[in-house]
Every structure is written in structure tokens, then in C-alpha cells.
Write a structure and sequence with these properties.
This protein is an alpha+beta fold. The chain contains 16 helices and 21 strands. Strands 3, 5, 6, 17, 18, 19 and 20 form a seven-stranded antiparallel beta sheet that branches. Strands 7, 8, 9, 10, 11 and 12 form a six-stranded mixed beta sheet that branches.
Length: 485
């Protein structure tokens, strides 16, 4: 498929592009795909987006969807295996103070006794296309998806991203193309409905009609509308469920943990605590924030995620799971093993010892082949190219390198598309690459899985000038896949 010809990129005038971008921005504003402005919390702007839906191979789209339930069940089993988490993370936690604090709290709760055996996970597994070809011209042969990471806490943009297929259909319609959402090229994206349903189901499992859902957020959250859509849709699903958006400090100030382990916030019993914050050191700007997190973890409220599940989402666990023979500890079904392993790329330990020494030499010899990844979420944390050499060479101890893992750099073919961002004077035609993620919902009680499903997807696309980062970190742009055979 000649995508340039299909989207008419070569024949669009500057006015054509401006008019299409303006209409697309109006569509997004009208459908609530909004960000709070950097300049003022009282002002909003449309989220950054790609003007046209980006071509994406159907076979890889289907593959990512098919493996999501396998990953749901894998991370669930890993979260229950204390010895595996301890063994996998002990070296990393010793040098990563933030994740070490999370791990210490996890150990504390485990020893005290878990008050709530039911847990909820809203997950997102992210992939990039791997290929020897520098550009994508519509030929889907020899293309593979490789997993970038699996997000177990604060998996965002499912709600705003679910509106992008509609925008894509609208823009193509303005060009005279009749491609509705739900057609073979523009699939539905049910991420919003699926995640809201997961929250509602967890609330129902808690068993109190008067209880509330609490979403943990930051005080200066720009991505509030992605979060508010969940609240609105939860209300449509079951109007009686109130959802409070509160910071960790506000929860501590206005909440209490009763002797029966019920969490009470502003006079309301809390059924579910959904963390959209708490994944990075910046979320804990005082000791009160840590005290609040501990109070929540000790309670009977259903956590999304539990601390154990947050630890499963670390890059170190991802690396250990890719080692030969490790998956078999958790997965016995041969088809599931095959589906999961097919998404793995090269992952290497940096722990002290011969294997870690070997990894360092690989990175120093050819840093452009790899990505150095710390145990952080939120985008903009990974290290590339000569910065890998600089980072490794300035370490004063081999012990320090355990806070990272090394991953093969996924070589994604580029395609041309227009980037539209509020801070840009005009849309920019650029070679771009995409990251595709699938959302999963998991509800469990102890080792029993009650609900496991794949519920939608997210595509983020960025200029090849930016090696790392997500929408929230200011590099990627919301997008929707245009499926090609």
C-alpha cells in the first residue's frame, strides 16, 4: 500500500493541511480530548495528535491483542511469588532508593498480613515494530512486534486514545474517503469502557453499596481529562458509585484507617483505590505521602495496583522473565509460552558478576544497539547512544549499575505523517515511529482469577528526533492505527 498516495500527503497544500488540522483539533476539543494548559490550570488545549491515523500491520495488531490475556495471567502469578520477587529485585532495590522504599513497604504489608485478598489491575503492554527496513512502505512481511514494557501502575491515555479512531475517520471523510470507525481499517477502541467496567466490577466485589472509589492523583495533574472520562463512564455504568480524585497528602489529611481495616475518607468507606500517581519519586514530595501510601496498603480497600503488582512492572522483573527457563515457572500452556516469548527482545542484566560485566562490555562497544533503562515510569527516563557510555563510565561502583537493565534497541521503520501540537505554529510533516499498547483488566482474589480480559489499545507516535518519551512527557502524540494487510 502506498500510504503517501492514500493519504494524499504529496498533494496537500499548506492551506489544506492547516484546514484539516483545525477541523481535527475542533473534533478533539468537542469530544473532550483535552489537556490542562502549562500556563494556567484554568485553561485547556487539545492533546497533541497525529493528523492522519498511522498505518499499522493488521497481523501485529491482532498479535498484540491475542497475547494480552497471557500477560494478565503472567503478571498475576508473578505478583504472588514472593521468593521470585525477592530474588529478582534484591540487587536493584539495594541501589534504587525509590523502588527500595516501595519494596520495603511491600515486605512490611506482607508480614503484617494482607487485609484485602481481592485486587484489581489495569495494565498496558507496549510494543514497537522491529524491522531491518528503515521505512514502512506498506509491506508487512518480516515485521515483528517487540515488547517495550508492561505498565502495572497508572496506565494512562486509554480514555483519550479511545476517541482518536473517530477523529481519524472524520479527517479521512474530509478528504472524500468513507472509512467509518469499526471498519476493517479503523477498529473500535473500547479502552475507556473496558477500564471503567473493571473499576465497577472491583467495586461490586468489595460488597458495600455505600462505598466510594478513590483515584490517587497529583495536585498539578495536566492529564485530568483522561482521568475524568473514567469517572464519567463509571457513573454511566452505575450512577451510585462516587469517584473522588485526591492526592496522597489529601487522603492522609482527611482519611483514617479504622481498627477493622476499613479505609474511611471524608466520612465515606473506600472500596477501591486506583493509583494514577505514586509511580515515581516526584509523587512522594513529603514523608506524609509515604505515610498515606502505607495507610492505603494496610486497608481493606481493593488496590489498583497492589504494591506487589507495582514491583512486577519494574524493568528488572521484565529482564529476569526473559531469561531462559524462567517463564516456565509461571506458564505451563505451550501456546501461551510461544505467544509471550515471541514479543521478547534482548534483555540483559547489569548486576554485579560475570554476566553483568559482559553486558557492560556489550554496551560500551556499541551503545547505539541498546537502550539503558532505569526502574522508572512516565516516559523520558531511558538512556541512548553515547549517553550510555557516559552513564556507565561515571559509576563509582559496579554495585550502582544494578539500578538499570540493558535492552536491545528496537529498530522501527519510519513513515511520514503530520504532527499537530498546541505549542507549534503549524503542523509538521516528519518521519515518525509508533508505539502500540494493549490494555488488560484483571480482577483476582488470592491466586484465583475472577476476570481477565483485553479491553482496548493505545497508539502514540513521535518524530524520530525524540528517542524516548510519552505524551505526558511532551514527545509523543495521540494516534490511531490504520490497519493494513
Amino acid at each position: 500500500m502506498d500510504t503517501n498516495a492514500f493519504f494524499n500527503l504529496n498533494n496537500l497544500t499548506t492551506d489544506d493541511v492547516q484546514n484539516l488540522a483545525g477541523s481535527a483539533a475542533d473534533f478533539l476539543m468537542g469530544n473532550g480530548v483535552l489537556y490542562r494548559s502549562k500556563s494556567s490550570a484554568d485553561q485547556v488545549e487539545h492533546a497533541p495528535f497525529m493528523l492522519f491515523p498511522t498505518p499499522y500491520p493488521r497481523k501485529l495488531f491482532d498479535q498484540a491483542k491475542a497475547v494480552q490475556k497471557d500477560f494478565n495471567e503472567l503478571v498475576h502469578k508473578v505478583s504472588l511469588d514472593h521468593e521470585f520477587l525477592k530474588e529478582s529485585l534484591q540487587s536493584t532495590m539495594a541501589v534504587d532508593k525509590f523502588m527500595g522504599r516501595i519494596y520495603e513497604m511491600y515486605e512490611q504489608i506482607r508480614k503484617e498480613g494482607i487485609a484485602q485478598p481481592i485486587s484489581l489491575s489495569l495494565l498496558r503492554s507496549d510494543y514497537m515494530i522491529d524491522s531491518d527496513k528503515p521505512t514502512f512502505n506498506g509491506d508487512v512481511n518480516d515485521l515483528k512486534i517487540k515488547q517495550v514494557e508492561i505498565n502495572t501502575i497508572a496506565s494512562s491515555f486509554g480514555c483519550l486514545g479511545s476517541k482518536l479512531p473517530g477523529m481519524g475517520s472524520y479527517v479521512l471523510g474530509l478528504q472524500g474517503k468513507d472509512i467509518p470507525v469499526g471498519s476493517r481499517q479503523l477498529p473500535y477502541n473500547r479502552a475507556l469502557e473496558g477500564m471503567a467496567e473493571g473499576l465497577a466490577q472491583a467495586w461490586e466485589f468489595y460488597g458495600s453499596n455505600k462505598a466510594v472509589v478513590v483515584m490517587v492523583v497529583t495536585d498539578d495533574e495536566r492529564n485530568a481529562f483522561d482521568q475524568k472520562f473514567l469517572e464519567f463512564h463509571l457513573h454511566q455504568r452505575k450512577p451510585r458509585i462516587p469517584l473522588f480524585r485526591r492526592s496522597l497528602s489529601a487522603i492522609l489529611k482527611n482519611g483514617e484507617l479504622r481498627e477493622d481495616k476499613k479505609l474511611i475518607l471524608e466520612g465515606h468507606e473506600v472500596a477501591v483505590v486506583y493509583f494514577r500517581a505514586g509511580y515515581s519519586p516526584s509523587c512522594y514530595n513529603s514523608e506524609d505521602a509515604w505515610t498515606s501510601r502505607l495507610m492505603i496498603e494496610r486497608s481493606k480497600a481493593i488496590k489498583c495496583p497492589t504494591m506487589a503488582m507495582q514491583l512486577v512492572g519494574t524493568k528488572k522483573v521484565q529482564q529476569v522473565l526473559a531469561e531462559p527457563g524462567v517463564l516456565e515457572r509461571f506458564v505451563s500452556d505451550q501456546d501461551a509460552l510461544r505467544r509471550i516469548r515471541a514479543t521478547f527482545t534482548g534483555l540483559y542484566t547489569l548486576d554485579e558478576g560475570p554476566e553483568g560485566d559482559k553486558t557492560v562490555q556489550l554496551a560500551l562497544q556499541d551503545p547505539d544497539r541498546y537502550v539503558l533503562k532505569p526502574q522508572r515510569e512516565g516516559g523520558g527516563n531511558n538512556i541512548f547512544g553515547e549517553d550510555i557510555r557516559t552513564t556507565l563510565n561515571r559509576m563509582t561502583s559496579t554495585h550502582d549499575r544494578s539500578q538499570f537493565i540493558l535492552m536491545d534497541r528496537i529498530r522501527t521503520p519510519t513513515i511520514m505523517n503530520y504532527i499537530v501540537r498546541p505549542e507549534m505554529d503549524a503542523p509538521a510533516l516528519a518521519p515518525v515511529i509508533s508505539e502500540f499498547g494493549t490494555f488488560g483488566v484483571l480482577v483476582s482474589i488470592n491466586d484465583k482469577i475472577l476476570i481477565s480480559s483485553e479491553v482496548g489499545h493505545l497508539m502514540r507516535t513521535k518524530s524520530i528526533e525524540h528517542q524516548d518519551g510519552g505524551v505526558a512527557s511532551g514527545r509523543a502524540n495521540l494516534d490511531s492505527p490504520f490497519l493494513v494487510e
